[in-house]
Automatic annotation (TrEMBL):
Its cofactor is Mg(2+). GO terms for cellular component: 6-phosphofructokinase complex. It comes from Paramagnetospirillum magnetotacticum MS-1. The record marks 118 as: Important for substrate specificity. Pathway: Carbohydrate degradation; glycolysis; D-glyceraldehyde 3-phosphate and glycerone phosphate from D-glucose: step 3/4. Substrate binds at residues 140-142, 177, 184-186, 237, 278, 284-287. Belongs to the phosphofructokinase type A (PFKA) family. Mixed-substrate PFK group III subfamily. The gene is pfkA. This is ATP-dependent 6-phosphofructokinase.
């Protein structure tokens, strides 16, 4: 009997813990089932382009150093939807068939996709088109994938944001300043609210809860009245201005990316609050570096379970972390849904209970 061949790819923005998941998939597939595992390079591009771009993994190629290594050794892309692929002349081309043909050329029988909600949706459509059996593993520092308490990368990003708070607090106190920390998270505030609670923020702004500048100013006055000479604020990059506009910067290729809400708030607060304010934009340091232990554990558990799903013929599923267990859910239940912070849930109520200003519903 010939060994089963499976493929694995990473798609969307990188984060810490991706290599730990690759390692787990390879170990489980080879040790337990004797399968062959092919790593596809640069997300869907590895199967779309010719020659195909892939590597066959063996156990030696995914040693324990993979647990400690940030990023993804396979490479990834977070643009270039194969259904509307951007061509050099500015037009868009449907290149989905190139992907399906590449899959067949490589002769694999199932695909493990490590991605966020956007990648999960696109890859699921691609796999449906090609009749390709797929299993998904959720990753994103934003932690916004539906039906899973944790996605790979979130724990590391949170640790980085929490450490930034620890470093900002003493300098804020020394200079009697208001420090604003702008964190990533796209349209949700998981990093912001968790880092705010863990780091003792006075103000936490998340896209899920509207705020007023007056509310922030009031909180800063309260802090002063309590005898403290400095204040800490965390703002999620996806928060809008008081009048409801997103704050973005244009990247190469004309793509808009969140960024700048911290500076906006500092400028507006300068009009009402008499305090020196400084802004720190944490940016991509939240995605890189050595994975947190929690991410390594989640990634390992997800990788092992994903391979077992393929072995059981349970396809079209995404692995998920629910109540301390790995479970699986239909990928179709996840695609296109964003898991946001519940404005009345435990985290929001905890922050309010601590006296943190988190906006007004
Ligand atoms: O989705 C992950 C994420 O890091 C977001 O938090 C952030 O808005 C975005 O990706 C940044 O994307 P890029 O790496 O393209 O700048």
């Amino acid at each position: 009997m010939t060994a089963k061949r499976i493929g694995i790819l990473t798609s969307g923005g990188d984060c810490a813990g991706l290599n730990a998941a690759l390692r787990a998939v390879v170990h489980r597939a080879i040790r337990n089932y004797g399968w062959k595992v092919f790593g596809i390079r640069d997300g869907s591009l590895g199967l779309m382009n010719r020659p195909l771009n892939y590597v066959e993994f063996d156990l030696k190629s995914v040693g324990d150093d993979m647990l400690r290594l940030g990023g993804t050794i396979l490479g990834t892309i977070n643009k270039g939807d194969p259904f509307a692929y951007p061509m050099p002349d500015g037009s868009k081309k449907d290149r989905s068939q190139d992907f399906v043909d590449g899959y067949k050329e490589l002769g694999i029988e199932a695909l493990v996709v490590i991605g966020g909600d956007g990648s999960m949706r696109i890859l699921n459509e691609l796999c449906r088109k090609g009749g390709i059996p797929m299993v998904g593993i959720p990753k994103t520092i934003d932690n916004d994938v539906a039906h899973t308490d944790y996605a790979i990368g979130f724990a590391t990003a949170l640790n980085v944001a929490g450490e930034a708070m620890d470093r900002l607090a003493p300098t804020a106190a020394s200079h009697h300043r208001v420090m604003i920390l702008e964190v990533m998270g796209r349209d949700v505030g998981h990093i912001a609210i968790n880092a705010g609670i863990a780091g003792g923020a006075d103000v936490v702004l998340i896209p899920e809860i509207p705020y007023t500048l007056e509310g922030i100013a009031r909180k800063i006055s309260e802090v002063r009245a309590e005898g403290r000479n400095h204040a800490l604020m965390v703002v999620a990059e996806g928060c809008k201005t008081e009048t409801g506009e997103s704050v973005t910067t244009l990247q190469s290729g004309g793509q808009a990316r969140y960024g700048g809400i911290g500076q906006y708030l500092a400028a507006r607060l300068a009009e009402t609050v008499e305090a020196e304010t400084r802004v720190t934009v944490l940016g991509h340091v939240q995605r890189g570096g050595m994975p947190a232990m929690r991410d390594r554990i989640i990634a390992s558990a997800f990788g092992v379970y994903a391979v077992d799903l393929i072995a059981q013929g349970k396809l079209g599923r995404m692995v998920a972390w629910q109540h301390g267990q790995v479970v699986d859910v239909p990928i179709t239940d996840v695609a296109g849904i964003t898991r946001a912070i519940d404005p009345y849930g435990t985290l929001a109520q905890t922050a309010r209970g601590l006296g943190t200003y988190i906006g007004e519903m």
